[in-house]
Amino acid sequence: MTYLGLFALQHRGQESCGIVSLKDGEHIHHKGLGLVADNFTESELDRLSGKTAIGHVRYSTTGANLLTNAQPLTASLKEGPLAIAHNGNIVNAAEIRERLKKEGAIFQGTNDTEVILHLLARDRAERFEDRLTNSLSQLEGAFSLTILTSKKLIAVRDPMGFRPLSLATIKDPKSGEKAWVVASETCAFDLIEAKFERDILPGQILIIDKDGVKERQLPAKSQLAQCIFEHVYFSRPDSVVFGRGVYHSRKSLGKILAQECPVKADLVIPVPDSGVAAALGYSEESGIPFEMGIIRNHYVGRTFIEPRSQIRSFGVKVKLNPMSAILENKRVVVVDDSIVRGTTSKKIIRLVRAAGAKEVHMRIAAPPTTGPCHYGVDTPTKEELIASSQSLEQIREFVGADSLGYLSVSGLQKAVSAKPNEFCAACFDGKYPTELFGH
Questions:
Q1: Please, which residues have CB within 8 angstroms of residue 154's CB and are 6 or more apart in sequence?
Q2: Is 38 helix (H, G, I), strand (E, B) or coil?
Q3: Is 366 left (phi over 0), alpha (psi -120 to 50) or beta?
Q4: Of the residues 140, 149, 237, 293, which has the maximum number of CB atoms within 10 A of its CB?
């Protein structure tokens, strides 16, 4: 079931994956670089026996793509084996790491998660739950965690609630017993036919063992900072994140975008797959017909070898193919979720024009991305983000659109029903909710 859950969450990380299972108080683990499908054979899954397991797919925002950084991370503490899987970024990890090194700690990898293992090992509290609370209270930033000990499954969400984490139940078909499931997104529950119960609350520690579920709470923060980009791009559209359906949010982004940035056109087309739901919303609100004017090739891997001959815009062409029969002699609105460096948008607009479009109007279902994320989304540096230094007109000219429109920050908040002091939109508005500790 953990293997199937990781399949559903593959979009959250493609660099490495791993599963640790618990059997008779001992851990069995397997990790590898690359995709879930490439790392787990039937014999490997047979070896990962037991009644409890945690898994992880990695998307590196701290530390290189090395096997030593693949998760779950494992260690042996005084009460036995421990495994931990982490989503998010701990912004004061480097500072803690240097302090621990001075005290004699030896680190195996270069990721931020490993500091949690060292803090747990060094804490003097007698009970593991107390050591965990003490250790996590020293962290700043984003951490949704699953932890497996020799007897317990533990789920944690940081006090500001940056990254999603949800709880579900599943019945054993033979015994009828109820088991607990934790995942970053609810789409993982759908695949294994688990019943969504609720979101794990910010700052909440759930301790699950043979006696049921116990709760603890980390010290509260003055505000919440749920990542609004989960709704813009990162989460799968069939998930419910922060209590709201992602697909519904993305259609709302498109509808409000149509209100804020109208244009006379013949067609609305998405950049697949990221712009599809927003383009549907834009079409519905504007009354301009929706078409899949660009077809995506879903079978292009990261290892694709580009030919040595100079084929213009090859990197985009191999993934996206515009259809001349639909686009020729049309005024086209192209909807996408973001413009990062601007180079991909420029190539897409060039392809749409080459397919015969007489006008190309770019509409972005999010505000301009003006700053990097420090909490678990791998965005470029501020200098690489085109919107951090270029005006709207300069970006329009660079990407080659006839017009360019972005969603406003207030429109974004309205689309996802964001309440004041509940969401982090720092990549758009520059208001980082924590100290950045030298980032």
A1: 132, 145, 146, 147, 148, 205, 206, 207, 208
A2: helix
A3: beta
A4: 293
Query: Could you read off the pLDDT of 391-422 as tens digits, one per residue?
Result: 999 999 999 999 999 999 999 999 998 787 89
Q: How far apart are CA 99 and CA 106, in angstroms?
A: 12
Q: Tell me the per-residue pLDDT of 234-249, one tens digit each, with 9 for 90 and over.
A: 999 999 999 999 999 9
Strand spans (E) along 34-133? 52-58, 73-77, 80-87
Query: Can you list the domains of the chain with their CATH numbers?
Result: 2-221 (3.60.20.10), 229-429 (3.40.50.2020)
Q: 3-class SS at 234? A: helix
AA letter at 322: P
209 touches 407 (CB < 8 A):
no
Q: How many CB atoms lie within 10 A of CB 90?
A: 28
In 79-171, alpha helices (H):
93-102, 114-122, 128-136
Please choose, from the candidates 228, 244, 233, the residue with its C-alpha nearest in 3D space to the C-alpha of residue 426: 228
| Amino acid letter, residue 438 | G
Amino acid at 203: G
Whether cis (ω within 30° of 0) applies to the bond prior to 72 is yes
Strand 359-364 relative to strand 403-406: parallel, antiparallel, unpaired?
parallel
Q: Terminus-to-terminus CA distance in the chain, angstroms?
A: 38
